Amino acid sequence: MPLHLPGTTSEEAAANGPIDRRANRKRGAGFTPAAMIAGLMLACGSAPAQNAQPATPPQSPEEVNKRIDQLEKEVRELRKAKEAGQPAKAADQAAPAKPGAQPADETKERLDEQEKKVEDLTAKLNELKPGTEKFLLSGFIATGLTVPQHGTSSFDAAFKPVFLWKISDSLLAAASVEFELADNATETNVEYMNINWDATDWLALRGGVILSPLNTFQQNLHPQWINKLPDNPLFAEDGGLAPEKSLGVEARGGVRTEIGKFTYSAWVSNGPSLITSGDGSGQLDLTEFTDVNNNKAVGGRLGYLPIPELELAYAVQFNDLSPSGSGLGTVNVVLHDVSVGYVAEQDWLAGRIDARLEFIFADFEKRIDLGSGPFTNDRTGGYAQLAYRPTKLSGILKDLEAVLRYDFLHQPNLAPTPADDQRWTIGLDYWVNPRAVVKIAYEFDNLNDPTGTGQSSNTFLLQAAVSF
Amino acid sequence: MKNTAAIIWGGGIGLAALAVVVGCAGSGTSQTDASAGAAASPEGKPAGVASGAATTELSGNELWAQNCGQCHNSRSPKDYSDAQWDVAVMHMRIQARLTGEEERKIRQFLQASN
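The joint structure predicted for all components is written out below.
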């Protein structure tokens, strides 16, 4: 009876490329004990071995357990077969020596030897039993130096582990915690913690604290080991417009069509609130963890990739920002977000170009009055960034990436904190390896503050980040 | 500020148009030989990938390069074990809005190449 090692039929090997052949070799190697045991059974010529099922890769821990049970059963049968043969052999030994007695002894020794091997292999297989849960610890560490033209220079550091548990083929639990040093103390925040369910090939549902799907930068590009500059665009900083995370539920997914790929998200969350007093009066409070009213934020995002290198996306979120009992009444705002991303590696560029553009607009339904008279609180922010890395050159040049960014944040002139800010930033990154980067940047700041309390401050930035 | 916004929008539209032209022109100029399998660059990224093909026509290698590289440097397949890739790819399916088929092909490629 031919013995088929897992996934190594000649038809499959012929049909698959080298990748698959390699995979087959790998899978075969991964189940060597099972294959060896089956081989040993055949070598013994025993009945149980003859009846052994062709080895196929176990697909689950339950199947591994079944294999072990089967092997144990075969060992028991071998024992029985051996014991059944003992009297006859004893009789043979008592009788005068005949031709053939020596081969019977050798067979018995071989049987004992094979039985011991099977027992050893069964024990080893038991040690390799996988659990039903799969866990991955990932994340990154970043440290940096900020030297402002006006103000105090300071080092900073952050540690953001990511914990992932695959509960089943469709269920995943994910959490990330931020540890940052601030004001001589360690500040701890939840970046996200959510339960994810892959409902279909094109739909995933998740709930909990999620990275906000509204803004592409906040959702995909803000981690320090991904962000090509040491700091975030103004709209993603405190006092900005783009929430980093939301507490709520989301449906999301992607669909491939003949004209490209579409991606989508739809969500309901607590939503941001309005800061009604203090320095940030009029700004959005983006923490979102405790809702301030019963009107939830509702949003959606549609992305289109006509070619894999280019994504065009539009997202919108409807909110009521007013805290209950604030006396402001309903303060509805619509957040619009438009983003374009183009990342491509081309021979004629001798490297990779990474271009990003994102614009976010907070459109307030009506004027509000926070004590200094009614004003229109519409706010805008955005950034455009171009990065180039000559990946096709040799030496250290291929590990360098030049970055140029323009970002701005506009706040209404009549708001309590009316400063307009815009910056140009130039930077150079050195990629030690794909997971480690050292960034150096200089920011040219142009702050227009009608109250005269703020002033422009160019800044030198240095940062190193490593993901794990 | 309105002028700035107009510049940004104009630039964005121009960038998108340029990207479409460049992308379409560039697609196919640096096709990755899918049979190269784990022949990833030191960055853990293949030299180039086909553009615009339906998922069913794309290998796990190509889908991996197309999707992961859009946000960050791709990790080397050797960074993780099979079990770890199982979890990581499931997480990234949700994060990057991959289809189920894309997830399966990428996972298969990574587990075969580590």
